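Office hours follow-up: a student asked to see two folded examples consecutively, so here they are.
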Amino acid sequence: MTATISGPAGAPPAEAAAAETGPVRAVRAGRREWVGLAVLALPTLLVSLDVFVLVLALPKLAVSLHADGTEQLWIMDTYGFMVAGFMVTMGTLGDRIGRRKLLLIGAAAFGGASVLAAFSTSAGMLIAARAALGIAGATLGPSTLSLIGTLFENPRQRAEAIGIWAGCFTVGAIVGPMVGGFMLEHFWWGSVFLLGVPAMVLLLVIGPKLLPEYRDETAGRLDLASVALSLAAILPVVYGVKELARDGVHLAAVLALGAGLVIGYVFVKRQRGLADPLIDFSLFAAKAFRTTLGGMLLFSMLGGTTMLFVAQFFQLAQHLSPVGAALGLLPGMAGSTVSFLAAPVLARRVRPGALIAGGVALAAAGMAILALVEPAAGPVWPALGFAVTSLGVGPMVALGTDLVVGSVPVRKAGAAASLAQTVNEFGYSFGLATVGTLGNAVARSYGLPAGLHVAAGLATVAFAVLVWFVARHLRSIRPLGA
């Protein structure tokens, strides 16, 4: 394999083998690499924050832009559609043109689209800006994650760095409502879109000095037909799943889902016949890769849906204010952040497979608490159940992401990172369409507590099965650095 890895100050290219060495030859990162991680983590945090503050800003911007119900849905959903649709393409593109280059292009585009969104004068203009934000956002996740793999060759340090990176998503979720509330109280609705602009400017200024460049010289050209097929497959599936979750089974959602699956089959068949595929399906030959991706899919599918039910339970069943509901979720958010940071440290002594299985078992215990909660119990028990579940999140997300990226050659890290994040996107949407729809149907018939009980009960059983599956298939992986 021939690859180009250049340092930020014009350091000579390194041998590809040096980038793919095991723990024995892996070079420990120094202060420069950890500062580079901070540069990568800041936009990750602010992108997460941006998602949560929009929920608060929607009522004000809807009035200001005279957006009807359909336009409001598109304002909310367009970003997610574009991120899901372009994630795979951007991860593979970064491997080809350079991960740092793609990250900087995406940061510039994200900053520009944020300004456009902030000063939108119509709902259509804001929807277009949100679409541009989604396409730019699709470059940030895979690029930052794959660059972490380049910066941190040492397995222990790489796992710690990914834990910090993953924790930024929950920190954004914690800070988002508070910052958004302050901005909306003192400024106009468009100000919330400007929060990420300073971080993107900082990334553009400091990134070229601190971040290494990596590209795979043997990757070949990008197959544009595969890009078109991937979009034609992913976007209808995401749309169909969201529509099923929102409105139940109807013809348009079923047709979109069916069309996406058919085009997806054509896409997979084309990839198997290409010398330079957009997705290299040989990656799935690694047991750790496919097992971890499957576990992350199930985890995001059930965890995200249950969190939504808990938030609704606080407000609708226990009649808490939005601020009170946010405070009820806060222990869980803090617990997941701690879990992200602690998991790589624990993995130095405990096998990752056992640690992930233990984390899922803890999450199942939290789900079991939620499955038994009644409104008369007050907010303490649902907050406790959510907090226990969140404490179990770290090993699967942080170590799982590390296993996905670390189980493939470094030249494929961008593609692997994009698959990991695409799985999370699909998991959340698919969870809402399946478990969420079932829970909502039960809630309409028997009340919201029953809906939470069904969602959490299904998650408890599924997580119990996942514990066995992970323990069986990942048991051979040694502790980090062993």
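And the second, which I mentioned at the end of office hours:
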Amino acid sequence: MRMTDLIAKKRDGGVLDTEEIRFMIRGYTDGSIPDYQMSAMCMAILLRGMDDREVLDLTMSMMHSGEVLDLSPIEGVKADKHSTGGVGDKTSLVLCPMVSACGLKVAKMSGRGLGHTGGTIDKLESIPGFSTSLTEEQFFDNVNRHGIAIIGQTADLAPADKKLYALRDVTGTVPSIPLIVSSVMSKKLASGADVIVLDVKCGDGAFMKSPEDAEELARSLTRIGRLAGRKCAAIITDMDQPLGFAVGNALEVEEAIRVLSGQEEGDLLELCLVLGSCMLTEAGFAASDGEAREMLLDAVRSGRALDKLAEMVEAQGGDPEALRHPGRLPQAAYRYEVPSRVTGTVSRIHAEAVGLVSMKLGGGRATKTDTIDPAVGVVLQRKLGDPVQAGDSLATVYASDPDRGAEAVALLHDCFEFSDGPVARPPFIRKIVRD
């Protein structure tokens, strides 16, 4: 079998069989197939596509290219969640303890961020003492004892995906849906959960800009998950403005605390209620989305959800008091308001641009070697459709350096657009996909 023949076959619209896909992934992982040949194959897949059987074979081959986590030592049904990424996406910090407080086990492996803001691991590590570097035995024990643990992804999980991801980034083949699906699902399947719920972002601050592309991705993700024997659902959500109000690591932890303690409602809570309802119903913990929603709301109202987060934090070496007294989280030295220059209604917030402002403050990584400052970021004071008077604050900048803070204020003015009349807010939850 030769890689050149497989490239030509896909280039001409052919369908790769199971053994051909296994040969390709095995060879690329061990280095016998060079980058230039895999680049050509990625481009052929981008242009010609793949059917479901090909995508499933690609996903499973990537999944088995390294360690596959066996969660059988954890009792009961295990759930996991994945987001395709967005600005201010602190969903896991709220969703996972809510679901765990309802009795469903959450065994989650998460990554660090590269780009707008930190990833879930970076956000959690802004809590003093919190460690995501648990052994496999500690991970299993924590989930069995506390019903929840969130750890960093191991280096041996789906190594083929790591190589392919880096290659796609520099060869113009990132937008291929078969390659996105196999990348996401190879890691989720290797992580071992029985129930996988996916948050597919759509809009300015998301990778999928159009509703059509987002739905195609969501349906493909759920099909592959179910073909692989997992219970799976996807939610398509709006990312034409940042999720919630905070963009930045410790700032997002503070917002998660407010939501879990019932102090704050809005799009973040709604997203967690919808995702959590899918997780509970798919796992058989609720007979309907309505019943699941009430279970989740009760977990928040009773304080059990925030208690569960504190329990997880303490079990992983963190300071649970930081959740009761957020002043113990990292604090920025400087604060600046962004005063509106006009009177009107907020008609647009450029989510990606807001994320880049946070990154320039030190809240995200431009390269993998960059160090994150957990204290910095942006907190929006106005969202889409909100009225504003000239001089009102649009956002608050949290900075560790006054020059960066002043630059952030100037950049944030350009992130907002205004209208003279009322502005309708588009639906935040765009679609739920279960087939």
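Two things to take away from it. The mean pLDDT is 93. The first helix runs from residue 3 to 11.
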